[in-house]
Design brief:
By secondary structure, the chain is an all-beta fold. Helices cover about 0% and strands about 60% of the residues. The strands form 2 sheets. Strands 2, 4, 5, 6, 9, 10 and 11 form a 7-stranded mixed sheet that branches. Strands 1-3-8-7 form a 4-stranded antiparallel sheet, with no helix packed on it. The mean pLDDT is about 95.
Length: about 120
């Protein structure tokens, strides 16, 4: 089992920055991908950024503004968000994807954190 605890987020003005953190604990050695999703009001949950091994990808809407990173020593995933726009307002979730001991896919979610971009 993996537990993901998020921190960061809050209210920021347009053009501002925030950093989200996602601390993992438990049995994390079978994780092969990590990412951040967001869900705006009345919208579906969409992938924002992901990392798997040395590969990193971003949604077009956040490219060149957001940066996903990880500190394996701290078992923590980050999302640095710069030049924030009102349309970035959403609940953000971290996500880990792994394989169980009997080779079944499994994924874990953080509790979600609200990011509001408004003047």
């Amino acid at each position: 089992q993996v537990q993901l605890v998020q921190s960061g987020g809050g209210l920021v003005q347009p053009g501002g920055s925030l950093r989200l953190s996602c601390a993992a604990s438990g049995t994390i050695f079978n994780i092969y991908a990590m990412g951040w999703y967001r869900q705006g009001p009345g919208k579906q949950r969409d992938l924002v950024a992901s990392t798997s091994g040395d590969d990193i990808s971003y949604a077009d809407s956040v490219k060149d503004r957001f940066t996903i990173s990880r500190d394996d020593a701290k078992n923590t995933l980050y999302l640095q968000m710069n030049s924030l726009k009102p349309e970035d307002t959403a609940v953000y979730y971290c996500n880990y994807k792994g394989i169980t001991s009997n080779y079944m896919p499994i994924e874990y979610w953080g509790q979600g954190t609200q990011v509001t971009v408004s003047s």
